Amino acid sequence: MRIFYLELKRVLKSKLTWILLALALLLSVLLAWLPTTYCYSNYTDEAGNEVNLTGLASIAHEKERQAEAAGIVTPQRVREAVETYQTCLASYGVTESYDLPEGVYEREILPIAPLLHGVKEAFADPDTGMAPAIMEIDPEQIDDYYSVCESRIASLMQMEQPDSPRAQSKAVEMYQNTKKPFEVYPGMTSAVMDYQNIMGFLVLLFCVVIAAPIFSADYQSGADDILRCTRHGRVSLGIAKMFAALFISGAAFVLCAAVHILVADSLFGWECTRTSIQMMYSIVTLADMNIGGLQFLFAASGLLSVLASVSFTLFLSARCRTTVSSLASSLVFCIAPVVISMTAPGALGAWLCSILPASGTSIQASVLYAITDFQFLNLAGLSVWMPYAMIGACMIEIPLFAFLAVRSYCRHALN
Predict the structure, then answer these.
(1) Residues 231, 122 within the same domain
(2) Assigned domain for 178 exists
(3) What is the mean pLDDT of each run of 10 residues along the chain (415 residues)?
(4) Which of 72, 349, 350, 383 has the most Cβ atoms closer than 10 angstroms to its Cβ?
(5) Residues 361, 306: contact at Cβ < 8 Å?
(6) In-domain check, residue 181
(7) Count of H helices and E strands in the chain?
(8) Where are the transmembrane segments (predicted)?
């Protein structure tokens, strides 16, 4: 324990460590606030003056206008919203809301807009996937709204996974087990989750930079040569170094994630976290959770990804003889999921993104986007939902690479 404490103290004495930790905390607050700057509202007041609102004022205005839409999304409420939409557009002789006269959308459509989310997707053509205009939907069919949604996920999976009946049936079963009817509480946008993902990726990079020289720096300086020459010294020191790096990285990510979620939810309103994930993303999203649950799950999976990436970085640090080589190779593996997701073909890219340690909180290939997608990994008749595979891989990689790091450190020959 004393060696662990001294190693922890040694790492925290570094000026670079404190700069990176302070920067991570600052970015957590900044990235929680940034989505509010993209909120914009425009309307005409009673005096005929055009009013433009941005930021928190825009959020408050839309929440006030859409207050009646908040709550349980029953088929009856969705049907009433569709009928209101169709009546409004028919009265002005248009087929799309963007063709309405100025001020009409804000006055008549905006208050019911949250209830219209996913309606077109639910009634998409099962063969082509093309969604109809709301004006083309028969309101009477909405009485079986959630049955229509279940039919939609079946047809969607036939297009997404045509060669895997197992994945199709698994997806349908998952969606049937989601809690219905859904709930919606206006105010928050998906940009909040996107920026939480960016925050996680940046913290991961900072933690990797902190961990990269843990072993390789001592190889260069020879600072641990005497202790490594003792019978049990190298094992004790290796374990202490490994746990110190994991502790600092884990604590940093937990703190940054907690700050980000607290600031974001305080700005947009805590009631928004009760919104079903299907009412922010696809109406047939498979996960059975609300936005608050998604924030927590992504934070937990992000923590696992950071710990797995740091463990892998420690392994590379124990294998490399210089800090430059260990840092460069570690950063390459952090960025690899981004490159793979954009360049590798479907199944191969999915498999690689699932097993790389940094994938859990990577840009474009994170657990967040896997949860809101419909990708399954298929092998020998077994179908696994991609988020499960990514989280499971991280849980295996943390002890595996931590063990390999200590083992490589102990077997490293002195110059």
Answers:
(1) no
(2) no
(3) 84 92 97 93 77 90 92 95 94 88 87 94 90 91 93 91 88 93 94 95 96 83 60 77 95 97 96 95 94 96 96 93 90 91 81 90 88 88 90 96 91 61
(4) 350
(5) yes
(6) no
(7) 18, 6
(8) 198-217, 238-263, 296-318, 330-352, 385-406
- Is 286 found in the same domain as 231? yes
DSSP-derived secondary structure for 262-298: HHHHHHH-GGGGGSBGGGTS-TT-----BHHHHHHHH
Pair 365, 385 in one domain? yes
Residue 371 makes CB contacts below 8 A (sequence gap 6+) with 277, 285, 286, 287, 294, 297, 298, 387
pLDDT of residue 230: 60
- Tell me how far apart the alpha carbons of residues 199 and 362 are, in angstroms, rounded to a whole number: 10
Strands 182-184 and 71-73: antiparallel
CA-nearest of 147, 137, 144 to 84 is 137
SS3 string, 176-200, reads HCCCCCEEECCCCCCHHHHHHHHHH
Examine the domain organization and report whether 129 and 15 are in the same domain: no
Is the CB of residue 295 less than 8 Å from the CB of residue 196?
Answer: yes
Give the residue carrying structure tokens 């859904």. Answer: 182
What pLDDT is stored for residue 410 in this prediction?
81
State the Cα–Cα distance between residues 317 and 320, nearest whole angstrom: 5
Is 180 within a domain?
A: no
The pLDDT of residue 401: 96
Residue in 187, 224, 209, 169 with CA at minimum distance from that of residue 6: 224
Residues contacting 193, CB < 8 A, separation 6+: 291, 294, 295, 298, 368
Tally the domains of the chain: 2
Quick check: is 177 in a domain? no
φ, ψ dihedrals at 363, nearest 5°: -75, 130
CA 211/CA 23 separation, integer angstroms: 16
102: containing domain: 42-172
pLDDT at 69: 92
CA distances in angstroms from 325 to 204, 251, 318, listed in the order given = 18, 26, 11
Strand partners, 183: 72
Task: Please tell me the distance from the alpha carbon of residue 156 to that of residue 124, in angstroms, as a whole number.
Answer: 9
Question: Which residue in the block uniquely carries the two structure tokens 């641990």?
Answer: 224
Last residue of a domain, which of 146, 172, 198?
172
Copy the structure tokens of residue 406: 């200590």
**Cis? peptide before 181, omega within 30° of 0:** yes
Length of the chain: 415
Residues 238 and 264 in one domain: yes
